[in-house]
Amino acid sequence: MLRQQLQTDQIQALKNHDKIKLETLRYVLSEIKNKEIEKNPPAGGELSDEDTLTALQKVSKRLEEAIVSFNKAKRQDLAKEYQDQLNIIKTYLPAKLTDEQLKKAVEKIKAENQETIQKNPKAIIGICMKQLRSKAEPKKIMKLLSQ
């Protein structure tokens, strides 16, 4: 469904002559297509929305790193271009949880999976990552779990 939305928006950007949005969506869709081929080599079937989100997050992270590099190199023109692309991609990503919301979500997951945690304390890491990966950065989740 997310991929279909991206494709629809790509067509709309083409019709509206929105060059930056069109380039960004083409890049994102090519990354998604590469993931599909990588995951299912013979047929290249469609990715689930979760896998598509993961691909979007990776592209977003790559752009953020590039923006930092361009700012260090004093290339404001390229930094602005990448920032515009990042803003377009962020419209498709779910809102990130605040630290307080993340803490509550982790506590809730711990309470719901108490038996599993008693048998295998490290199992909570996998459970939290699976449920919260799209809503928060894995580093933040790990930091909360290690406390």
UniProtKB/TrEMBL annotation:
Q: Which Pfam families does the protein's record reference?
A: YqeY
One Gene Ontology MF term = carbon-nitrogen ligase activity, with glutamine as amido-N-donor
rRNA processing is among the record's keywords: no
Against PANTHER family, the record matches this protein to: ALTERED INHERITANCE OF MITOCHONDRIA PROTEIN 41, MITOCHONDRIAL
Name the InterPro entries on file. Answer: Asn/Gln_tRNA_amidoTrase-B-like, GatB_Yqey_C_2, YqeY/Aim41, YqeY/Aim41_N
- Regions annotated as coiled coil: 56-119
Q: Does the entry feature the keyword Metal-binding, yes or no?
A: no
Top-rank taxon of the source lineage equals Bacteria
Keywords, A to Z?
Coiled coil
Q: What's the protein called, per UniProt?
A: Asn/Gln amidotransferase domain-containing protein
